[in-house]
Amino acid sequence: MVRFTTINAKSPPPQLLVASRIKEQDWTNDFSKHPLPVLYSIDIDTNKQTKISNPSKGYGDYAPQFVPTIQKLVWLRGYSIIDTKRNLWKANSDGTEATEWLLDVEEIVFYK
């Protein structure tokens, strides 16, 4: 049975939760052997989970956030959770129209 662990989760529009999820496995200090996360949309009312990102081999999707001012979901795509030069992606809240937005981003911070 495949089990998943959630490493980041943010809520876009009501009743949806977007989570960065990885397959569970035993811990290793070798980051090249770590599973890489993808984004899932979770409907809170039905518990239905839908994969909404598809990173290229060797990349994972981290730190999803919904930005109300642009009505977009944003996240970091990189080699590992400790990668400090990840790229910022944006998409609709369902993952459609995903595009790379900024390069070499360490952290996502939006101010109101």
Would you summarize the structure shown here?
This protein is mostly beta strands. The chain has no helices and 8 strands.
Can you put this structure into words, describing what you see?
This protein is 0% helix and 46% strand. By secondary structure, it is mainly β. The strands form two sheets. Strands 1-2-3-4 form a four-stranded antiparallel β-sheet, with no helix packed on it. Strand 1 and strand 2 form a beta hairpin. The protein starts with a strand and ends in a 7-residue tail after the last strand. The model is unreliable at 1-5 (pLDDT under 50).
User: What portion of residues belong to β-strands?
Assistant: over 45%
Give the helices and strands as they follow along the chain: EEEEEEEE
Distance between the termini: 43 Å
**Biggest sheet: strands side by side, in what order?**
1-2-3-4
Tally of alpha and pi helices:
0
Number of strands: 8
**Poorly predicted regions:** 1-5
**Main sheet?**
4 strands, antiparallel
Indicate the structural class: mainly beta
| Rounded mean pLDDT score | 84
Question: Globular, elongated, flat, extended or rod-shaped: what is the shape?
Answer: globular
Give the C-alpha Rg: 14 Å
Helix content: under 10%
